[in-house]
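Morning F.,

Quick status update on the modeling queue. The single chain you submitted on Monday has been processed. Sequence for confirmation:
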Amino acid sequence: MASVVAESPRPAPVLTASGVPDLTGELKRQLARANSRVFAHSDFVKQVDCVHCGAPKQLPSKTAYVYCDHCGSLTDYDFRIANLDSNAALTNQVFAYLVGPVQPALDIAIATGNKDRYRELLRPGFAEWLRQCPQANSPRCARDDDFFERQVTYQVECFLTRDFDHSTHQVGQQLTAATRALQRIPQPDGSYLVGDGIWSVAALFKQQMEMSYKVLEDNGVMALDPENAPVSVWLRMEYSLFCQNWLSKIAAADSERFLAFFGLNGAYSKLKITDAQTRKCGCCGDELRTVPGARQVICESCGRKLDIEGGEVPCQNCGAPLSFPVGVTTIDCPYCQVSTHRA
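Structure tokens below.
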């Protein structure tokens, strides 16, 4: 009988003040590189009409979250920008690292039907993931504390509702089995490609997502969405993240077909607008462009929704023209830090 060498137990991870594992040094270094590339810069505009006010998109987005130029509503998710800089594999790795330690307890909560325990376990890890991975989330999470908390609540309820739904869970198990069964073909550079089984994986994933969002709608979870976005936007986001994970692992000749399967072959047009106006965000001081007639817009640098229709207010000390966040009457000037009011 061969001798067995006992492995030294792995040291327990250091916990943060919120009780979740502190990230490893390597993960922190990778995130620092990824987070420095959160914003994309492009002269191309995603051709889409706002799902709320109907206005066409005219200005390019800095992030994959496409907000209306007129009312500030989330109206689309841009796979092209998402695939430029954000790293889906890295953000998934961070999520698994933060939530992994409580996964056995989450499984017990699901098995016993204990939803309150599930929420208690998942919420700290998910909130920390939002803080650590801005490139994978809405820019509105950056400085808007109320939006951040509502987003955590919404996403935790999404996870809970899916995990406690039997039919969705069954499809998820089929998806896991199909993924594990994928043929992996080694490549000379050390990477690998997957075999034709990827199409079954893609079909199961699409089925799971369509079922999931039907369940979320039926259970009232979509009403918690702080973006108030239609299901089509969230599905596009789910499909985009899935494709980010797999595009590099399928044959290049199949990439367009893969994107088309999920409806991600969006059209783009060259920036044409010439009468955009420059505004200064009253929260972070960054400059942003707005179209004539804009009412509310999202500052993609800090995530606050700004009241453009209400006009600019000069700082009472340095005179900088500032656009106030919606519903806010007092801010500290981002340039001189003096309190400034508007009627």
